[in-house]
Structure formats: C-alpha cells, structure tokens
Amino acid sequence: MNYLSGGVNSPIPIPESYPNNIITGEGPYVIDSNGQRYIDMWMGYGALLFGHADKDIVQTITKHVKNGWFFSYQTKIEKDFSAVLHDLIPCAERVRFATTGSDAVAYAIRAARAYTSRDLVLSVIGGYHGVHEAMIASEGLAYKNGPDLVHFNDTRESLEAIRTKKYACMLLEPIMANSGCTPPLPDYLQALRNVCDETETVLIFDEVVTGFRTNLGGAQKKYGVTPDLSTFSKAIACGFPLSVVCGKASIMEQFIPTGNVFFAGTFNAHPLSLAVGTKVIEKLRNGKIHSQITKLGNRLRSFISSAISKCSLDACVQGTDSMLTIAFGCKDFIHGIRNEKFNQKAYDIFVKKMAERSILFPPLPTETVFLSPVHEAVIEKIEKAFDEVLSEMKNL
Ligand code: PMP
Predict the structure, then answer these.
(1) In the structure, what pLDDT confidence band is assigned to residue 132 with cuts at 50, 70 and 90?
(2) What pTM, to 2 d.p., does this model score?
(3) Which of 9, 220, 233 to mutate to test the pocket of ligand 1 (most atoms within 8 A of CB)?
(4) Cα torsion at 292, 296, 297, 303 (round to 10°)?
C-alpha cells in the first residue's frame, strides 16, 4: 500500500512509462529495484552537478559524519564557507545560510520589504521561486498576495512597471530555468539593474538553479550584472539541503540581530551540507568541470537542432551552458515556454519513446535538462536515441 497522499510527493506528474521504485544512483544512471538502469537527464532538478554518488562527495560525507553532524552553536565551517562565498559571488558582501530554495527566497523578499518599506513584489510570468505565498508566480497559481508579473525579457514592460516605484523588489532568475531554459536577451539584466538603481527597488537574482552550475560566481558573473540580493541552492551542495541568501551589507543587515527582520530555521547552515559545499567549490576551482559540461551542452543542443531540421519537425531546442529544453509545437521562445502554445502530447510521446530506450527526461518541457560530466560516457547513446525517436515522430 502506498500511503503517500495522492501516491506522490511532488506536483510534477510522473509518466506511466517511468520507474516508481528507484533505489540507487550511480554516475549518469538511476537504478530501480529490478536492477534496470536508466540514464538520468534531470539530475536531481539540477542539484547533482557531478552525477549520482560522486566518490568525492561520498568520501566527504563519510568523513564528516563521524565527527557529529549537528550543533546548536556557531560552527567554524559556517564562518569559513561564508568567506569563500563572499570571495566568489559578486553581490555577496554578506551571507546567510538556510535550508531550501524557498526559504532563501522568502528571506530575500522579507529583507527587501523591510529595506524599502514597500510591500509589493514584481516577478516574471512562468517563473518559479518556491512554495511560499509571496512567491507563487506561475500562471494558474497566482494567489491574492502573490507578486505582480511582467514578461521575462520584455525590457519595456519591466521598466514601465518598476518605474511606478511601487515595488520592494524585482525577483527573477537571471537565466529562466522553470519555463523552459530561457537565457536573458543582451542588455535585459543591465536594464533592470539601471532602473532598480533609479527607483531604489531591490534587484533579486534567484540563482537557486543557475548558481554554481554556470560558473563559480553564478549567472551574475557570467552576464556582468550584480544584483542587490541573490539566492543559491541545488548545485551548491549537490543534493544535500542547503541554501544561501547573500547580497549588499546594507540590506542583509536588516536581519536579526543587526536589524529586526526575522530569520530562523533549525536546519539552517547544516554542517554536513556545508562540508559538501566546501568540497563542491574545491572540485570546481580549476574550471575544468564547467568547461566540460558547457561543451557537452553545446554538443547536445547542436545535435538535437540538426536532428529536428533533418526530420522537419515542429520542435525546438534552446538553453545555455549545461542546461537545455526540448519542446514541440513551438519555435525558440524568449519570454519562457509558459507563454507559448507548446504541444504537451508530442512531448509525452517523446518522453515515452526515450524511456523505452532507458533514458529519462523531465516529464514537462517547462523543466530543464541538466548535464553533468558523467553524461560524457553516454552521450553517443543519447544522440542515437534522439536520432531514432525524432525520426519516428516525423511519421506520427
Ligand atoms: N527558486 C528556483 C529558481 C527554483 O527552481 C526552486 C525549486 N525548483 C526554488 C526557488 C525553490 O527551491 P526549493 O524547492 O528547494 O524550496
């Protein structure tokens, strides 16, 4: 008997063709209780930057757990790791550690509200910033006290809204990863930076997905635009619970005890997650992994794009770095895929045919595919499957 409410723990529907009894992960694979191996193209929603059961991470956890793993006192590692992040992330004058991406975004919004003495939040259509009421920003999910919304990459509309000076903050992912992978148009982020300065609006980059995946300083470093506040999670601790809110000292010092903004959480700054985070940064320092996964991303995007043209399919692939989205029934999208009439049925067929070849994609094209160095060993198998599946789809 499955006593999970609704049988699941996530709002994302799991296709019938997918395994529902995963027990282990290894490199590029998830493995079910029958021993069947599947190539994982979702990689823990992007958290598993090095793939499953990375040996260095296993070693780190094994070593640290022996020394005790949870304390109600200040730890050395939280101070040391905050200094590491301060040096790496352009906006990180001050740092706080939390547990989930949702928490980090909630704290950032709270600090922005206190700092500006304004209540309203502006965000983008189709964005996702966590489970708390103030940040539900998806169509169909707009609660009464949720944010106002503009189109991602629509500079004119965004500037017009911010110029009303109604908003405590503008909250967005610098590369949108929750509405298909949608990079920013040139100058969009800088235009937001300028108008937020002009109107004293707090600019928040939610780097829960992009942080540590694009490079060590996040998408803010890649695009050369420094937000006032920023949030990180997922890849920073490779699947262990850790999030970060960081930014300008004057805003961050709104938090208790220097200010009055409430900030708490039993598992915040969990020492095991911080130990993993420290190892993650060490592994990324020489830049080899980022250049390897970006190369894999470029290779796969261009392979899929040629396969789509060869089969004359009404489909597209887009993304950047080690992230991509494939969608049917639409051309390249600049405002996020939730603004397009994409063909979910065709995507369902694609997902099913890929699963028959033991390759698991995110079940919705609004999600992003995440590549890790471990995909290098199976890239030819993935490309062959694309060739076969897309040419079968041509004949449907
Ligand atoms: N922000 C972004 C950009 C996210 O993608 C997510 C989760 N997918 C969150 C915030 C919320 O993070 P969590 O699920 O850890 O609360």
Answers:
(1) confident
(2) 0.96
(3) 233
(4) 160
